Amino acid sequence: MEMTDYMQDEYIIQRIKVYNCGCKKEKPRQVFKRSSPDDPEKLPVTCVLLKHAQKGYVLFDTGPSKMPLNRFQKFFGGNRLSSDSPSLTEQLEKDGVDPAKIQYIIISHLHPENTGGLIQFDKYFLISTEENLSRIRESKYKKLTHMRQFRSTTLLPSTNTLLNKYFGESYDVFRDDSIWMAGLNGHTKSMLGMYLKEHKLFFVSDAFLLRRQLDEISPLKYFYQRKQWSYPAYLSILRRLRKFHEEHPEIRILPASDIPEDLIIAL
Ligand SMILES: [Zn+2]
């Protein structure tokens, strides 16, 4: 993916880059009852790097781990993964980002393709909901993920009139209006989307799979419905995201497995 360069000093979020960290083994035609001829062949697993003017580098999710995933997946019931991409740290280094300088990692939800890559980092603050963080602290989870000790910041709800109109709780990560998280529970019990107000981007993680689902009803196959924490809640979030999309077309809604390659921004 290429970066588009333009200079804007006044932004708090000065750089955004999406990294592809492998692919889910499910293909769209295995997930949807009716797949579209335009559906991609694969569903990438992505994470997002941000550069915050004061806080430094921030990651939203970490991609899968390179270690054997069998037991990990059995425990978490996540997607089967193929990880044929270079590791996230290798990709960051290639872009001149020292992985040791990643200060904050925000976790959207506790599936292997979101948390597995944590093992590659050190000395970061892990940011998520109380529900997610308390589960991560369980010794079984730590053992399975080989996670080291970590420092954490629990998100506290704040008011965002735009997000609160459509979704559950919202969180102003650094209390500076730059990175907002929105509760999108359905895919998992406590799932977060990331809204970057300055850039009008809303990364919704696995709230749904393909951007076309915002415009057309695409029923999921039963096995994929079962993979959701609550399928009714999943559908409710999708309906609300559709309404949000209709009423705020200027904001791009991006599911983790369907992010356009031209999105990458370096400011
Ligand atoms: Zn997931």
Q: Total helix count?
A: 9
Average of the residue pLDDT scores: 87
Main β-sheet description: 9 strands, mixed
Q: Pairing-aware structural class of the strands and helices? A: alpha/beta
Q: Gap between N and C termini, in Å? A: 16 Å
Tally of separate domains: 1
How many β-strand stretches?
14
Contiguous low-pLDDT stretches (5 residues minimum) are 1-7, 77-81
Helicity range of the residues? 10-25%
Cα-atom radius of gyration: 17 Å
- CATH homologous superfamily placement: Ribonuclease Z/Hydroxyacylglutathione hydrolase-like
Bound molecules: zinc ion
Helix and strand succession?
EEHEEHEHEHEHHEHEEEEHHEE
Architecture per CATH nomenclature, i.e. the level-2 architecture: 4-Layer Sandwich
- The percentage of residues in β strands lies in 25-35%
Oligomeric state of the chains?
Answer: single chain
CATH fold-level name: Metallo-beta-lactamase, Chain A
Using the coordinates above, name the CATH class.
Alpha Beta
Shape: globular
What does this structure look like?
This protein has 267 residues and is of the alpha/beta class. It has one domain: Ribonuclease Z/Hydroxyacylglutathione hydrolase-like (Metallo-beta-lactamase, Chain A, 4-Layer Sandwich). The protein has nine helices and 14 strands. A hairpin with a 3-residue loop joins strand 3 (43-52) and strand 4. Bound molecules: zinc ion (ZN).
Task: Map the helices and strands.
Layout: E1 4-5, E2 13-24, H1 28-31, E3 43-52, E4 56-60, H2 70-76, E5 81-82, H3 88-94, E6 102-106, H4 112-115, E7 125-128, H5 130-137, H6 139-145, E8 151-154, H7 161-166, E9 170-172, E10 180-183, E11 192-196, E12 201-205, H8 222-226, H9 231-247, E13 252-255, E14 265-266
Parallel strand pairs: 1-14, 4-6, 6-7, 7-8, 12-13
Antiparallel strand pairs: 2-3, 2-5, 2-14, 3-4, 9-10, 10-11, 11-12
Residues 109, 111, 187, 206 line the site of zinc ion.
